[in-house]
Amino acid sequence: MEYVSTRGAAPALDFRGATLAGLASDGGLYLPREWPRFSADEIAAMAGLPYAELAARIMQPFIGDAIAPERLRELTAAAYGRFAHAAVTPLVQLDERQWLLELFHGPTLAFKDVALQFLGLLFEEFLRGVDDHLTIVGATSGDTGSAAIDAVAGRAGIDIFMLHPRGRISDVQRRQMTTVLADNVHNVAIEGSFDDAQAFVKRMFNDPAMAGRFHLSAVNSINWARLMAQVVYYFASALQLGAPSRRVAFSVPTGNFGDVFAGYVAARMGLPVERLFVATNVNDILHRALSSGDYSASTVTPTAAPSMDIQVSSNFERLLFDLGGRNGAALAEQMAGFEATGAMRLTNAQREGAAALFASARADADDMAGAMRWAFEATGQVIDPHTAIGLHAARKAEGLGASVPIVTLATAHPAKFGDAVERATGLRPSLPARVGDLFERAERCSDLPGDYAAVADFVAAHATRQA
């Protein structure tokens, strides 16, 4: 399997190269040259497989001969052996139609663990026996950072630098990063928003002064391997609900578009996905893009769902590329216009292609709180603010057949956002015992201004230069 850049000017890479590179050298994102497809019979044969075995089966076509099948099964068994639930991503029924897919049973209590526990092992696998040192640079709006740090802390040949917007993530999210004191972990709080942090990361990959001295890589969902691992739980949940003979819809709370793009990939692979509902908070650039073709950034509004406080959705570029005939030069021009002005219009082909599978909804603070209350009072389920935004969209869903179940992705444990949950439900959720001492641990973090030069200088001073 070869991987090509959405902007058309970077060289094609194999799976190993794309995984270690993260961002393409032309500023684009890597995608497989073609989508592998499973037949209905092949999908049906996956029913009942343990999650780790299903993961290996789904991911093997993307990996090709970069990892032997038996070794891939060993890696998936190791990655998902750390989850607190035997099903890894269990389904919970809310009513006759609504379901939750619980993605927070990993070590850092968020859906990012599903991909990053595997990605950490991939990095280690690809670096074994090679005279190379990887410098991972990432930005987080809350959950990516802790999941990535947990996945690579203490691993040989890797340093990780994780940027987060100071004061704009929850205390639990921050402490899950800053209390990891491994020598190869560097937490950085910057003045500004997640979009600022993400822009610094992208700029660093295209800065010769940095990319030429360090082997930079990414753990954000700009890294294709991370999205690939997220495709698996769409198959897992759909199979439990009757796929391939039954179609399934998904509602996905999203800011950076990576999680819902994984659902799009699952559909391209042959999974019978009826509809993907893109659920946003008031930072609604994706809702505006999908409903009216207006992809224009505005000021980020802080909310009680901080992982979605994003106005530049990196992975949306992958969808625009695929729907626009995979014309890298045309997309590069389109994205250059957006990066220069902060605004662009989707083409007719992009809008029509998206409308065939996607719908969108926007939730404000009252909508979010109302969904949390409904889940608690009607079903006994306590959910976090991000999941509530997805559930709000799912309960508003229209145009689906009565037999189509709707699965809302429950992306984080409610205890990560205890204040917001308590305000909505009157109940303060407790942290699981395995992280119960989180607020007693020492923290370590560096504060930097919202300035690219300051961030680049910090990374250069603490990273290991490539051989």
UniProtKB/TrEMBL annotation:
Keyword flag Cytoplasm: no
Lineage top rank: taxon: Bacteria
Family designation: Belongs to the threonine synthase family.
Membrane-spanning ranges: none
Cofactor: pyridoxal 5'-phosphate
Residues in Threonine synthase N-terminal domain copies: 2-80
Lyase in keyword set: yes
Keywords attached to this entry: Amino-acid biosynthesis, Lyase, Pyridoxal phosphate, Threonine biosynthesis
Pathway: Amino-acid biosynthesis; L-threonine biosynthesis; L-threonine from L-aspartate: step 5/5
Enzyme class: lyase
Protein's organism: Novosphingobium tardum
Name this protein carries in UniProt: Threonine synthase
InterPro entries listed in its UniProt record: Ser/Thr_deHydtase_PyrdxlP-BS (IPR000634), Thr_synth_N (IPR029144), Thr_synth_N_sf (IPR037158), Thr_synthase-like (IPR004450), Threonine_Synthase (IPR051166), TrpB-like_PALP (IPR001926), TrpB-like_PALP_sf (IPR036052)
Domain Tryptophan synthase beta chain-like PALP span(s) in chain numbering: 87-344
Alphabetized PROSITE patterns for the sequence: DEHYDRATASE_SER_THR (PS00165)
Catalysed reactions listed for this entry: O-phospho-L-homoserine + H2O = L-threonine + phosphate
MF annotations from Gene Ontology: threonine synthase activity
EC number: 4.2.3.1
